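Researcher: Batch entry, complex prediction.
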Amino acid sequence: MVRPLITFSFLRPIAGLQKNIPLMRGMKMTTENQTFTEKFDLLGCIQCGRCTGGCPVTVRTNLNVRRFVYDAYNEELLDELSRVAEIWDCTACHTCAVRCPKGLKPLEVLIGLRSLVVESGKTQPTVRDALESVFREGNPWEKPRATRSDWMEGLDVPIAQPDEPVENLFFVCCTIAYDPRVQIIAQNMVRLLNNAGVDYAFLGEDESCCGSEVFTLGEEGLFEMIIEDNTELLNAYQAERIVALSPHCFTTFKTRYPDLNKPVIHYAELLDELLEQGKLAFKSGLSKKIVFHDPCYLGKQSGVFDEPRRLLKAVEGVDLLEFERARERSLCCEGGGGKMWVESESKKERLAETRIKDAHALGADVVAVACPFCVLTLEDAVKALGYEEEMRVAEIMELLGELDIEQEKTNSA
Amino acid sequence: MKIFTCIKYVPDTSEAEVKLNPEGTAVDSSRFSFDINDADNYAVEESVLIKEKQGGSVTVVSIGPKQSEVMIRMAMAKGCDNAIRIEDERIAAHDPLMVARVIAGAIKGQDFDLVLTGCMANDYGQAVTGVALAEILGVPHAAYVKKVEIEDGKVKAHRELEGGLMEVVELTIPAVLTIQTGINEPRYAPIRGIREAQKKELKVVNLDDLGVAAGDVDADASQIILEKLYIPEVESKAEIIEGDPDEKAEKLASILVKGGLV
Amino acid sequence: MGNVLVLAEHRQGELRDITFEMLALAPSVAGALGGEVMVLLIGSGVDKMAEKIASYGLKVLVVDDPLFADYNSDKYQKVLSAVIDDYKPKLVMLGQTAQGVDLAPALAVEKKLPFVADIIGLDVEDGVLKATRQIYSGKVNAQIAFKPADTCLVTVREAAFEAPEPAGQGAVEKIDSPLKEDLDYRKFVEYIEAEVGDVDITQSEILVGIGRGLKEDKNLPVAEELAQVMKADLCGSRAACDAGWLPPDRQVGTSGKTVKPKLYLCMGISGAFQHVAGIKGAKTIVAINKDPNAPIFAVAHYAIIDDLHKVVPKLTEKLKELKG
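Model: Structure tokens for the complex:
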């Protein structure tokens, strides 16, 4: 038996390449005659150093992003710069971009250098395999496209149909769909939505990688193809908005998909809205000291700071703590920027461990996050530090799921 | 160097649950991902490396469905120059000797210096096609090749034997080499390269186009019959070894030794 | 007469195990075909090997000639071809080994023999030979029947059969080499021994994997001693390599290496998805972990749910005993 052919836009006439898509500054599509300097507006840089000053990975590695922005101006140096290991240390947290007084995105210079490596074909095997998997199977985890919805087993999940209007169209994320550790984010969301009577649907097996990590790994051509395919797919549905479960998909859709015809929100925003409308109430409580870790792609990149906090505060008994480095200053967990496939050469303490030590010092029982990558990196850090008995890392949907269960127990008792 | 590189589009079943159709005659592959066969991927890289060093051209040969063109374009993006995709339902795909005849039909009559194949396919795991192909083409061969050196019109092939021992053989050219995984590090085919490779020639042919008589390569021509497939009775989940810690250790030790695992 | 001809495999003066493993299968097939087993031994100065094979009560055909001082598939093929013509065996059996794989397919083509490779079983039903082999990395078995032919060919999977004990005394028959001069198109050059020292875990046959559950580096000998007894190489999860217990090139997983050992025994590894992705090529996985819900158990073939510190030292001890 042969499965139906998935449509690769590249097998169609190369229309996308000629289309003049108005992309954001610094993300402008490579055209034959655009130089590296023009593409990243290198001349706009005043070498103030705020980028490197704010860069969280400088405590672990020798990455000096300001220096790269400076050196990349010399076209003859580009090849050599692309071979410097540090370009792979960037986690794409965007602190440099947030702080740049000239509105540049220094991290994209590093991604541009990564692109040179990718275009040459000489990527690390782990990166190669992840990118090939996205190309073939629509996810970076080397899993079959056909098993993308396996997490739904045993759940009543409405699947979106192009001709059926729906209010909330959910976008799961590859990691949540395939990694058994974080599938619970989607599973608990379905249970919660069914309880709250929300009008929603999931994409099912038609969903395909948003390209967030493809972009940061420097595969520009593949990212262009993904944007084109996903825009066509998502625009075909009569949904009022798209709700992303992962901040990476959320921010990527918001900032790098210029032709999407509907707004994109993160699930924390949806649940906050339901709380306000009185459609969501937690009858049981959770007597825990919880500290919320702002995911870079949710907080500093997209400005969603208050919604997750309001959700946690709405749970009775929760003592919500704050990190010293919170909100815009939140410390990156090093899960983004393609770092799931590239190990840093640094042997110094991981930022996730620094973060967990901070949480431990605060006396937190739970480090709550709203991102699958943060779950994975921070949980590793808890294990590495041997804090398993004292504290845990939990995605907000995991915590809310535990409430629901308690609530049901109370009702049936 | 004129090189032909033979590749196969295979399902990845390493993690997937495998189910059969009710008749037990075919595997339901609807939930598998498909990709270039592992060893063939290394063969593609090796052929491109040889071309980069020696000059020449690389032609991809593959028997497979339309979907496999993605794989072929990826090979072209890596540096292969053109391709022949053979699609014909009459080929007895269960018999590698028939498959070798079809591939020979695509190569015969053309000049070539080397034919590279993967040493074994992930799906059927027979390790037959490449060596059979050499015999049909009437040229020398070496199987399980982990290193290739070309000098003075001869090829030195390092064959990987059991236990990591290498057997170095010298073959006259033209020759067929079946490539072992790990011989190189396959490069990435960037999507822009794949788009670019759309311009390269990909010929789609059937047996008639190749001048291969169907009666020579079909199920009747094959001397073997695939009678049935069945799922062997193995524990789908782990066998849990019970007892106190000492008993568990003892039981496991005996499993490992008796099972010939250590 | 339905004789079975087994090709003896040897390298660097030693008969290889596969030779004897085939002797476990050949007699029953020969019996069902109403014939006997003959073993073909090709080499130079192979009297001792011939005697050893004869001690299994079997007839040994020996081609002993300096031209066969080193293995060469093409030369072997010429001998096999002539012996098949002369002795007309109903079935020819080779090992699915680096030798057999380099030889059998060409022989099948040359002599137009029906051929099934890498079999794990062979039966005769109503005079028809039926082979069993595995496909899809062992997840599916295929039963393949041979159409009627004068001679059929199989290659037998290594370690699929247990070698029998010697029994009786067979005859050794020397036959003339059909090959009179060396071949010019394929020459043996040399053997190159595997490099010692640097371990490439992607090539390891047996791996012992360690994870966070090892707790601290002073426990490393627990794993090292087991690995030594098992003749295994050590590898680890990201956590183990991060902790500096193992060098980075021993890391297994999406950000490390993908390995494909025959046996992977891991301890204190929970089996994060990112690690499991790196061991999907492992044939047999043994997991020791105290967490019954550790995802590693979903992919393991054998599971011990217990504290590795209690189990592993005992396991090492037992293996030492059993392996003598």
